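re: ur question from earlier - yeah i can do the single chain one, its not a big deal. heres the input i used so u can compare w yours
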Amino acid sequence: MIGTPAHCPYCALQCGMTLSRDGAAAGPGTGAGGGAVRVTPRDDVPANRGGLCQKGWTAAELLTVPDRLTTPMMRRDRGAPLEPCTWDEALDRVAAEAGRLRALHGPDAVAVFGGGGLTNEKAYQLGKFARVALGTSQIDYNGRFCMASAAAASGRAFGMDRGLPGPVTDLAASGAVLLAGGNPAETMPPFMRHLTEMRDGGGALIVVDPRRTATARQADLHLQPTPGTDIALANGLLHLLIAEGLADEDYIAARTAGFGAVRTVVNAYWPDRVERITGVPVPRMREAVRLLARAGRAHVLTGRGAEQHARGTDMVSAFINLALALGLPGRAGSGYGCLTGQGNGQGGREHGQKADQLPGYRRIDDPAARAHVAGVWGVDPETLPGPGRSAYELLSALGTPGGPKALLVFGSNPVVSAPRASAVEERLGALDLLVVADFVPSETGRRADVLLPAAQWAEESGTMTNLEGRVLRRRRAVAPPDGVRTDLEIIGALAGRLKAPGEWSTDPEEVFGELRRAGAGGIADYSGITYERIEAEGGVFWPCPSRDHPGTPRPYLDRFPTPDGRARFVPSEHHGPDEDVDGGYPVYLITGRVLAQYQSGAQTRRVAALAEAAPGPFVELHPDLAERLGIEDGCEVRVRSRRGEATVRARLTDAIRPDTVFVPFHWAGEGRANLLTNPALDPVSRMPEFKVCAVRLEPAAPPEGVSAF
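and the output i got, formated as tokens:
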């Protein structure tokens, strides 16, 4: 039996597993060459220590899903169906159309949209391809929909954005963890073993969520605020911390700046006022503050629920302010952290596929950064474009006057994952050319003019950076099917046809070597990390600026990477959601994930066991609300917002606030949650407000005498 050390293709915990094939008859999880690929958890990876969730256990089935793409597909014209073609025909068409559109409309006529699941090598090469081969500024990625607000808030507070303040195993020794807007019991179940170990040792888990989620049910204290009021809650907690004399004044004086301005702001968030805004009782707020202050070691963590807002950066800043006042960041075994979502959500935002960044987490408008990266790429810095549009702004501009006329998509499915999804579909339909590289015909891929079959996780090598900032090896375990190419091979072939300058290696290790040079000296410095070191050390933490550097598992211990070495308090005022409830739309909608599905569902909906466990979308609502609306458990419900409507089945539960409903976002079709969501953007991170909007509900066939509410 042959075994290959690997990591799960899903979330940013990047659980360790071994993929083995024993030569048995073909069956579920059979890779190219025959023999069933089997998954075994690894106990030598600290993040999961032998644990896997249902998605991880069934990951090998992705290799043989029935509609796996194995040949390029192309439409002869816009009204024609997708038909098989050769690779040369497909790539020649893409290069010719890109060249034609650039000649007619300029280099920004062609745009690129990447993904937070791409390896570091692919994310890097995609950013280079956009700026050098296409000369376009129009590149962004779906990570803008995930961690962008936490990244922006961390950058302005600490001078650096890295998911957790130390190894995930530090959580087990913590005395208290406050988790705002995260549900790892469903989104990354093996993560919970660290929190369970903490609680077994006497630590306390505090969860902030409008729902009593699977994670909240395991908490010692659950704070259940009105959606969109997290800033008020965090400010109220900080107010109590100061009022009760529990702030770490010595730490604040020695290691931070800006506390005076924040103190002035939170003075107005007295407990009774915060209770009226948030619905969280004052005694529960006091208990949360005392648990954190008396813990010794403690962590404040945020997830998408506190980040995917039109003021998400300020929401995260409010929780960072609380962590700073407690004296946590820069103290071993404590700190603020973000529960990164996508598999390479951390690395994917470091190497150049964001609209405003170059490799190493450098700003694209920094002349020194441009000069350094251009030198590695062998081009004149003046030829590099400037910042482009953020993800939703890019998608909204497609096919408009002055907007891109062509879009190349790698590793993303915006037809399902983007807010106000029906408008995104319209924009994709207005393009002259849509190119999608994927391993299955996703909802976005089915709309493509050219659909390219790409290798997937176990069929290619590369590196991933998990939520701790630990760079890991992804090793090829099986060969891809005949006719399938890796993304690096696709990018290299297109760069050659476009006569792009420089080197365009298709070997992941060679590309990683170039990434190291391009990122050297940047915030996310990988220059001291090699494949050999990752192999020998079980992963290396960035920044790691030289081969003899040990890596940095716990940044900020001595100083913060700011000009004066101090962390910054940033005042944050509560304003409520961009779209509040009213008489026409009187109920809050929140969205999120469920245990058996992942992101847009393009992978998990094709795995039989996962599809059986979570077969379709639903709306979770309180029985009191359901009774007022004449909605029965299991009946079909129309959920309407100002942007569209979705039809889903009702699921009644008292685990949610009576003024709030929840719809998961994994499914396509008429049950798409993102037909409803609000694309209002955070002014700093450009994050859309996925997590709260106003809706009304009605039975799909209302009983006589019952009206919509």
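The first strand starts at residue 2 and ends at 7. not sure if urs matches, ping me
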